[in-house]
## 1
Amino acid sequence: EVVLPFGLQSEVDAHLHAFLDQKKMMIPEMPRPNSSESLATDYGNYEKPETVMQNSLARERVLRPRSLQLRSKQQQWVDSPEGQKMVEFRKTLPAYKEKDALLKAISENQVIVVSGETGCGKTTQLPQYILESEIEAARGATCSIICTQPRRISAISVSERVAAERGEQIGESVGYKVRLEGMRGRDTRLLFCTTGVLLRRLLVDRSLKGVTHVVVDEIHERGMNEDFLLIVLKELLPRRPDLKLILMSATLNAELFSSYFGGAPAMHIPGFTYPVRAHFLEDLLETTGYRLTAYNQIDDYGEEKTWKMQKQAQFKKRKSQISSAVEDALEAADFKGYNFRTRDSMSCWSPDSIGFNLIENVLCHIVKGERPGAVLVFMTGWDDINSLKNQLEAHPLLGDLNKVLLLACHGSMASSEQRLIFDRPPEGVRKIVLATNMAETSITINDVVFVVDCGKAKETSYDALNNTPCLLPSWISKAAARQRRGRAGRVMPGECYHLYPRCVYDAFADYQQPELLRTPLQSLCLQIKSLRLGSISEFLSRALQPPEALSVQNAVEYLKIIGALDDNENLTALGKNLSMLPVEPKLGKMLILGAIFNCLDPVMTVVAGLSVRDPFLMPFDKKDLAESAKSKFSGRDCSDHLTLIRAYNGWKEAERTQSGYEYCWKNFLSAQTLKAMDSMRKQFFFLLKEASLIDNIEGCSKLSYDDHLIRAIICAGLFPGICSVVNKEKSITLKTMEDGQVLLYSSSVNGNVPRIPFPWLVFNEKIKVNSVFLRDSTAVSDSVLLLFGDKVSSGGFDGHLKMLGGYLEFFMKPTIAYTYLSLKRELDELIQNK
Ligand code: CDP
Ligand code: MG
């Protein structure tokens, strides 16, 4: 049995933030004179690390340039006791047995594909093996290995782990570079970076001069950036015959990648997992008498809490729901009846849906059982996890803190919480972790013996025909289900409860759809243009699995409408600026306008909120209270975005007097989300500065602003996301051009008002479920639409909008196509003369 030192991981996590902050202070990224030059300098420096050193005293202090004596330094470390321990640990990883075979394959082929179970040592070991063998072959001074990661956090933590394994400081032979942050020195030969960073380097250095190895990690995720990078690299390889490409994947679908690269050899690292017994829904019923427990438990639960009559009646109803749902599930052909049915918020299970009770029952079964071991529950998303956690905390057994340690695990949790997930709980306490599919491959909890798999994951999809993105929990793939199951067999034989019948599993797709096929392509198309990769549609047709022509056409059309591309598909000045900002083009446009109109502070709040997530919490049992708390911020604005700004500013104010948490509690706000927004705002600020769109903090930090102007900027960004408002006697009818009548989420402040005193709503997102629903919206007037909505796409809306469209062209088209500066002047004048 191999016990892996997970303490190390959590220690790294614990210090990560403090460490990063410290580094940021010590190593400012170079000041940039202007945007186009900045990229060149950045990556130019990469080629000549010495210049970096000369230019930056601060950097020198931290990184202490040394001559290239990697080999002797390494020997000293290996001879020390800690070094010995590390060497021994590294030998226990499954990748170690394949080391020679892997290196041989790399030396004999230009491209190889490596697959292996999560945790077998692909990311931390393979790039290191390459580095070591290069040093061995006296090429240490000239090699340059780049390993890409899909996420910032993994690029940073992996590079730190590898540096620690080599007994070095980060920035010696191993470094990292993510957007806005980096640690590398003149000796850095192995660089972990995000996929985006490598793509941006290609912007100024098409042939990756000086790079000897590119390792693309986590390709099984089929992220959009990775698929994109593969197209570029495929084209580059013939021009750079000496460049080695290594693709790494956690699952066994190597053939696809191997044939994309003309039959590149695929290697597999055999893992060491224990067998995991799979239980499907029908097994649960047959072998554990689940059905009986399901009934009894609900009654027990009801009595124990001495619920009121009304509640009891509710439980009775739920009980019959369960029985019919399970029945349905067994009939199985139509699996909709057993459902993770959605109530008003489309994207999550309804909190009192049977899915939750099923999970509750399975967890009781495990906790009452004899076998020790932690439980990992795969849920669809953050909101589900929270609702389920609330439900379980109220349960007599599962909520008992002496018996159960209940933890949540999702992308944006605090690092202190993160540590608990990896720690072993006290004797006699069962650890239950509720996680998103992030726990499938990105993180590993070693003591997991039981896995509960709801079979779904929240996934974006894209309906090209209606040009509508959808975000729905959808069935996972067979590969993902296998991966989830495998998580139970790290330390001993495990059990996996799949909460769906086997025949549903059989109907799963083999692999998840690649992101390129299920997301709107606007940002990607912008990037293709800024990388000067030629015709967008021609370029994308060379992808591993090319997207639909219609999706591409929609994206190009959209970019033309917002003025990022001209009629000939060339990048405009606005387009260039937008491609510098790591947010969707529409949000980038808001930031640019915010900078121009000197009201960046509130605009950054809106953009941060839209790119992180809604900080307003809507707990199902306190929905009314939460809604009324929210409406306190909204006043009569009819704008979710202005509401968000007020809530955020209030929190900032409360933070100043140390009462941030109290404020959040009182107002049903997520402190965590607000903090994430805060750090995102800081990033925006630096980026805009980097792109020379602002020169100092003045005008950005002031809290007073004009609501009408913000409304206008929101309109400019969200256009053509617009619907018309008709106030009727008892209701409000909303219509968009493409969908006809649409509805609002009840969480929107506009969902609960008797009338909306403006003729238009601009919205950020529409999502198709049964009907089309609009998320956050802001009401705008004719004149705002006239001035700030861009030209209306051909085809027209209705007569009114067509007329507006005519005006819009008249006012806006030449300026937008040209540059935003003249727009500022023109609009400034208009506003001044109002
Ligand atoms: O990439 P892959 O999933 O194959 O594995 P890896 O990330 O290279 O990790 C290999 C092993 O190193 C893991 O099983 C962990 O035990 C250990 N590790 C660690 O202790 N701390 C880290 N920050 C990363 C990995
Ligand atoms: Mg990995």
## 2
Amino acid sequence: MTTVDASTPATSVKKLYERLQETTPIGRKRLGRPLTFAEKVLFAHFLQPETTELERGISYVELMPDRVAMQDATAQMALLQFMTAGLPQVAVPATVHCDHLIQAQYGASTDLEAAQVTNKEVYDFLRSVSAKYGLGFWEPGSGIIHQVVLEQYAFPGAMMIGTDSHTPNAGGLSMVAIGVGGADAVDVMVGMPFNVRLPKLIGVHLKGAPSGWTAAKDVILRVAEILTVKGGTGAILEYFGEGARALSTTGKATICNMGAEIGATCSLFPADENSVAYLRATGRDAIADLVAEHLDDLTDDPEVEQNPHPYFDQLIEIDLGTLEPQIVGPGTPDLGRGVSEIGAEATEKGWPTQLAYTLVGSCTNSSYEDIARAASIARWANERGLKVKSPLLVTPGSERVRATVERDGLLDDLRAIGATELANACGPCIGQWKRTDPAAEGVNSILTSYNRNFPKRNDGSANTLAFIASPEVVVAYALVGNFNFNPLTDAIAGELIPQPSGEKLPSQGFASEQSGFRAPPTDNSHVTVQVDPSSERLQLLEPFSPWDGNDLLGLAVLMKAVGKCTTDHISAAGPWLRYRGHLDNISNNLFLGVNNAFGSTAGKGWCRVHQAEESLPEIARHYKAAAIAWVAIGDENYGEGSSREHAAMEPRFLGAKAIIARSFARIAETNLKKQGLLPLTFADPGTYDLIERDDTIDIVDLASLAPDQPVHGRIHHANGAETEFEMTHTLSPTHIEWFRAGSALNIIRERAR
Ligand code: F3S
């Protein structure tokens, strides 16, 4: 067996650039104009560049990504599903990164040791499944997924999907990198295309160059303020201009990372000399040479920068030369202002001006440059005998960054003023933070260099008001412990803090190589995937059974959702995250958030077996045990929200045969199809109103199920009356095959046989 190489050999890069040179003229011809850089990358990854429909925001396109990256929380179900496909190895290079499950409490080494114990079974599973199926595996402590991907795998012009919303971080190295749910990752790992609506394009023209206190972070905080948290939805944010070329690769990654905060599909910078330098510094000379040779292919056509308006659905201009350092929050990243205004605004709004904690790091701001600039402030303070007035936690983004900032004395600079170093992991950025300070009891303010600041995100407490700024601004505020301060104009101990400084890349090179990485073995015949049958967190999946060829008759109505029924209503997150790798256990949350027309409170319904009100997952289990097939009824836009595949797998697992709704959110509809469930839409939305608690439903003539043909249904009312009705669907011939086989993965498994 040949193993898929988890790294990217230069030969693959060369092949991609040859394709880019073939597809770029096709794109120019089809659109009748020059191309932006994002368009060039998309054309190079379309399954069918000659015929793909190209209406932005409307057409669905099939893309062939170059790689997949997964973090430890989302990888569990994705890989459990992949295993049921019966393939010997992943179809594209893929990696798993253990970063989300490490809780921050005492400091790097103690917290890491504790995580190794607490999460042992999850790590053992991910390690063994990676070895078995040819994925690269990054041990806990090796770094945060997006920093590691940037250092090891990202390269200009490539495309990646990742099961984490900040996957677009790799856009800093000119990669179209999109955050997806596990179901999409499974598609790509089994060799199917990634299906997505063709994004709109928002151009961001950066003028001037940042100087002094202004950092890349301030660019994205300003963009978020301009576009708001929804302004990037369904769009690629494409940066260009002299300001873009003035930013380091890791600075650009900070900007692309936080595009997730405004809903962007991804964000992207064209390649430039900084990209080449970053590739060399991270030990990828052969790829750096190819990028240097192809720089013209890896940027916009020149006409775009000369007159950008015709190329974008929306255009923003930001002058980096006049941009003031920003602080955003609390609660949302689009509530921004300059540092000069935060003190007065906090006082006026009644937000605590004292800072209970300050935190530097997260995948957004944990690069060498970030820590170097933060450390320059700390060094100045230490020389004057100053210490932090608010506790300061610092997270390096990867072991490579940690070892380098340690060697270069930057961590010592931060420790000298009282900072505590955390493990190279997500920690407080994902709520993995055990706070014991008294301030956490009441309303308190914290300032971080992270990306998300919604209530409860960092420490699980709605009392904590989280604000965001650049790492150097965070350290400056740590020294005064208070928002009533402007680092640009106010003195500490009689002196102004000098402007932050730091190298973009370490002049002595990075200190360590690939620490914590396990390449898959060439011979995997001895590898057994480790799942303890008594585990409550992990469970091997059984393939769903195929359709038996009969019409679906006498289906019980489990629930009728009234109003919104998002993926959170269908499969809640929070404490249920623990069971993401255990379909049986996580199914105990099925529909718990749903406002059911036949229940007294959310998540409740009427059980026809026990003739009593029970929780919806309990009822579904009772029906499954009694072999009563059931259907769920949705209102408008059923399944909106995240792309979480559990929202489709759970009803399938507990015995649903179809979901009938007034309309579906597209990703949820596709996920249902993939799991072999029928997503059907009432041809007359008024039929929804006719369905009562004790009715049963027939779905008939399924032997002649065909694209664009209505499906016939019958409601048997409890009073003996019957109502005939029609349903529509969006099933293609392939989707109908999935239904017949029991799931999309069953088809792959059949073919693999
Ligand atoms: Fe981790 Fe926070 Fe980034 S959870 S992947 S550090 S957004």
## 3
Amino acid sequence: PRAIYLKDYQVPTYQIEQTELRFDLSSEATRVRARLCVQRDDTTSVSEPLVLDGEALTLISVAIDGRPLDAAEYDADEHSLTLHAVPDRFWLETEVEIAPASNTALEGLYQSNGMFCTQCEPEGFRRITFYPDRPDVMSRFTTTVIGDRTTLPVLLSNGNPIDQCVIDDARHYVTWEDPHPKPAYLFALVAGNLEKREDHFTTASGRDVLLQLWVETQNLNKTEFAMNALKRSMRWDEERFGREYDLDRFMIVAVDDFNMGAMENKGLNIFNSSAVLANPETTVDMMFQRIEGIVAHEYFHNWSGNRVTCRDWFQLALKEGFTVFRDQLFSSDVNSAPVKRIEDVALLRTAQFAEDSGPTAHPVRPDHFIEITNFYTLTVYEKGAEVVRMLRNLLGWEQFRQGSDLYFDRFDGQAVRVEDFIDCMAEVSGQDLTRFMLWYAQAGTPEVTATSAYDADARCLTLSLSQRTPPTPGQTEKEPLQIPVAMGLVGADGKDLPLIMNGESLGTSTVLVMTDAEHRFVFENLDAAPVPSLLRGFSAPVKLHHALSDEQLAFLMRHDSDGFNRWDAGQQLALSELERLMAAWHADEPLVVGDRLIDTMRALITEPADDKAVLAEMLRLPSEAFIAEQQAEVHIDAIHHARRAATRALGEALYDEFAALYDRERSDAPYSPHFEQIAQRSLKNVALGYLCATGRPDALALAQAQFDDNANMTDVRAALTQLAHADDTALGEPAVRAFGERWAHDPLVMDQWFATQVSRPQPDALERVRFLMGHEAFSIKNPNRVRALIGTFVNQNLVNFHREDGQGYRLLADVVIELNRLNPDIAARMVLPLTRFRRLDPVRRAAMRGELERIRGESLSRSVFEVVEKALA
Ligand code: HT7
Ligand code: ZN
């Protein structure tokens, strides 16, 4: 397979003014007729052929302005249809046949539980009909869907229904018209036996919008939360970003088989059922919050992505980075802001940093790819959002909002580049953002080193900051980036000190801007040495090296005015204790937890807390993945045993305190997914985790009682996890069985059942994965099942996935080989953990490489090929 380069971009030679589609739906032989009004670009020479993309299509006929073409007038190969001589403007009519039922890749038109649905981003439309399948070709779509009246009573597409009729006893049709020109990747069609929840929204300018959420009948009782989340999102986008919805109806459809979370098709969002369906009996708190974030994300795309779209797929972060930033801001406005930041940063610092330091590292705007679906990554989405957040940090909210308004006004209805967005920000602020653009071009996580020296005579503190970005594949030399470092100085009384630099007062918190490799900042008028609190709110996606003593960390953990940095100081403190335990494990010495961590935790539990959600986060030890990310050579067993020993020791030492906390946070109030209640449950269940880590029967009895109480899925699942992860299986086995029998009818709950079992740390986990792969509720064709069973094992059970005998790697490779044939996109995502072998010990490294080479021996899809080649390079 050949790579495609950003530098080779060329403007499209033909535009499609109008697109009229007619689908005659059938599982094995759907007929798609396309009438395209084609217009030659003024600058294009007459001899330029019209080349249309097409994959896995059976061509039935081609006609120009009603005249059928004979075979000599066009070329059709596996990927395209080429028309040699065409008029300047004409109607092209094609008819193709496709087979949705055998489409296991879930791109283009496919079937899920009998329902027809589409996924066209990024290049799925070419699996539906011949078309210039690129985002800079925007067209007005009219779509007629013909289907069986009994099995497909609901026929949906983008825009508004303009015609519908019964054809005969068996069939009916509906015609939809979308008034907004759009690229093909935003096209959608759904046909099935669905029911709807309906609601209305009145926009800021007083227009009524019909809201519909379409699901299978048995899921109607899981639609209320998403509908309310949608209405919250619509209002928020008006108030925060001045963006109003632009169609008369907005529809969401829930689909069981879906490669990602959801898709922002114009006026007809299609959602993975796991990203939209929720109720208290079946759904945990974390999922409620995830659903709220995804509903918002897809809705926000209506402006950042649909009204203003990408010129080409290299610009993906233009819409994704901005939209993730917008959904993060929304979630932080409607929930606990520090906890939202903590969660987002935790994901970034474990998973995205790992990507940035591995063989698949790439810039936020890649400059080449073999398969674009491989670039829907944490780097494009999460780091892309951090880059937009840095702009907000550099410009301040007011100017950032002005820049956003200018961008939407200036480019409405256009397909644009990252530069266009940045130019708007530069224009409204007067800032030079030339160096800032490097964030889009340079891969790798910059490392910032901070040192400070206090001069008692001069009463000043000199803060030295330096930056360096390590080499990444294909990019050995890196330039300094523009980095906003939000900071403050904390005085001995725990209060922020006034910041004075060059005689100028900067308040108590400021943003230092790095543009060079090294900087020195001098703060004046300080009576004693303060503790610098740096990178507040995680103001830039960097690794900060700031050598603070355990004492200073404990001080910041209690006093920093920045909630995020208080949490982060606690994580660093815990990390330094875990490092001592890991050293002891290597030296075969007893793992004894020091008093400082225990005392700090005790203080946290017993002192009054103003934000319970933050407190719950502060009580959690750093995850195994985060600890691994800190190590030059990763020792999975040491990490696992140190963390387990620390959890148990804290549980033992603070048993009474955790028991009191558990009692204090218990509540009989009816369930609500409101963030204050979520915080309370989170705190209670953290306490339960520490209590159960001791293995004491009274702690497990608490878990059993909570399980039996069956109050809501959050509490049931937390209790089940404790029971199922206990060394003694006496309570766990019956609980797992009861849960499995109770929820056998609900695939989304069975996913939780799979995940709970395969994250069990005991050595029988791998055998359990193999066993569960044979369970009737599992199907390798469904991405949610694969993520729940295999993904959880691989990503959340590190000690068992990385078994020294290599069986974990073998299992994953077997799965990848099968998926490579069925669903290349998912296969290419699942193979990623096998590519992260460089920092492992030689035995595991060799075992992983061996499995990658076994995969390479197969006939590979382009997606898997690209990842495996990078890893073995
Ligand atoms: N913009 C959407 C991307 C997406 C996607 C990409 C590749 C394969 C399947 C997919 N489904 C959805 C989702 C989003 O970012 O909102
Ligand atoms: Zn998106």
